[in-house]
Amino acid sequence: MLAIRTVPLGPFQTNCIILSGPQDGECWVVDPGMRPEPAIEYVQGDGLIPSRILLTHGHCDHVCGSGQFKEAFPDVLICCPEKDADMLLDPDSNLSAPFGMPMTSPPADEVLHPGQELTLGQTVWTVLDTSGHTPGGVSFYCPQEKVVIVGDALFAGSVGRTDIPGASHQLLIENIHRNLLTLPDDTRAIPGHGPETVIGLERATNQFLQ
Question: Which pTM value belongs to this model?
């Protein structure tokens, strides 16, 4: 059984998600945001070893803790969607400079592509195209665990902002309909901020998707 732990981080309360299996201590860390110390302490305290940092997209509040994780766990691979990879190194496009706190992340060790499959223990995760909030945004879907990690594409009752550079509202809505709302109703959706939801509820009630 996969353990899923959500640790809100930093001033934007970004949901950092730690995925770990029952064996060997391997884990993944999804979206280590600003001020990642609580997530690092959780990983260390549980004796876990991160093999991958998975980034749903390239905004600063999701990527800027990657460097501290890399310092604590030098062998961890930073995995970023290909179209957002340059954002890790650019405070303007990752939106940290406009907030007056320019930050960067180490470069990606591995770029991710929609349709790619990643394996953690006995679980297989598919990279889904949920771009629109950013040019390369992705979600991570595991049918075995009935869960999808959606970053800032979808929220409980809302969708990601598209009034920012590099965003496209039309593309985001199309990708949500194509790649998220087609998942089973009881699929847990863990967003980048705020509470979890389920796909069936969002399909039926989310006013942005009607």
Answer: 0.97
